[in-house]
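If your schedule permits, I should be very grateful for your opinion on a structural question. I have a record of one protein: its chain in single-letter code and its fold written as discrete structure tokens. Would you kindly read the sequence against the tokens and tell me how you understand this chain to fold? Thank you for your consideration; the sequence and its tokens are set out here.


***
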Amino acid sequence: MSKQPVFGFIWVLACTLATGRTSAQVLTMRQAVQNALNNYGTIRAKANYVKASQANVKEAKREYLPDINFGIQQDYGTVASAYGPAAPGKAPGVSSSGPMFATQNWNAAFGALYLTNVNWDFFQFGKYKERTMVAQRALDRDLSDLGQERFQQGIRVSAVYLQLIAAQKLIISQQNNLDRAIAFQTVATARAKSGLNPGVDSSLANAEVSSARIALTNAIEAEQEQANALAQLMQVTAPDSNNFSLDSAFVDRVPGSLTHSPAQPLKEHPLLKFFQDRVSVSDEQAKFLRTLQYPTFSLFAIGQDRGSGFGYNYGPANPNGYTQNYLKGVSFGTANYLVGIGVFWNLTTPIRVHQQIVAQKYTSAGLQEEYGLISQELQAQTVLAESRIKNALANYNEAPIQVKAASDAYVQKETLYKNGLATIVDVTTAAFVLNQAETQQDVIDTNVWQALLFKAASTGDFALFINEF
């Protein structure tokens, strides 16, 4: 038995085991997309940003609630006092107060303060309302950001899935090319040994076999790269062979939605919605800044009670008019209450806020320009998508004709060579043309689906593509 056919059989077996298609579970397009949507880090991160924005909206709504403070203070110290002005520094001072003595004394007793304070900014010219609206717009922006990230991830996974199918089909074509080269090598070697053809024919045949093996190895490497890219997008570990078993049957048909119109207008494109929501957040922030120029109307109420170990008659005439009994010092003694309404307005705030509003308007204008740019790009891509579909269909119809003609030409040249009517150059040229036709068909078959995917990406209607599966 010839060594070359044996080697060819071993090579085929090795490639089959390497790809692992015989035992691997088939990964469908929908499963690949869903795995990516569930696992990809950026999507999970943006989902957490949405939850944070939801919490911010709830917090903003609760800002309108009044401030209610309750405090209890119990102390022990002296109450010696002195006439004279004073101002607080960086460190707080004590709030002791008592009668004047001619000399310092260290009489000390317990004291307490019980305080309840309510403050409610009940009217602020829509300040709290606009703050809530800013938080709501930020939530809408983060939701649309999550939506466009999921959309783009679905497009990316689908594109790599199609590229991996093409790479796997290229391996089959290159394996067929190697089989043809090995078979022809056997014929050329036998005819050279028998003297029917020049000895150089066997050398050329050996070179063609080596070239075919290199092409097959390169195809396997390309497949491994695409498999690795798909694994990264799905955030999963690729099989030990660094490959996936894919559902490739669909590439043998033309998708029915190629000529369908998108189910939504272009302005509903996930990417455009995200950019529009960025503009909305900036506009709402400008509205909120305007409210900072106006005064705030507040309603406040205070209730307090003080306890003290110093008696009402404690002073220079009665220096012993105090007690160090703890319970008497911290018990309720003198109570006061206060209810009022006030208006607070920093008259220089409008001057400072004005430039903030101007800056925010320029930010909105910049974001609007970015929105317009993205819109123009998507409109151009939508037109290009239709051209891609038209060209892909034309190539799809021509590819089988090219493969059939190249295959017939190769069979003819090989037969003529076996009968001494053609040269080895004729055969190798025909083999090259056939290999090129087969590899082009592998790419063209998936290009039709790539064209549909491009249309889905440009129009923002991913269902146009994924509903085919």
In short: The chain has ten helices and six strands. Residues 63-79+103-123+296-344 form one domain. The beta strands are 26-27, 67-78, 108-123, 245-246, 296-308, 334-344.
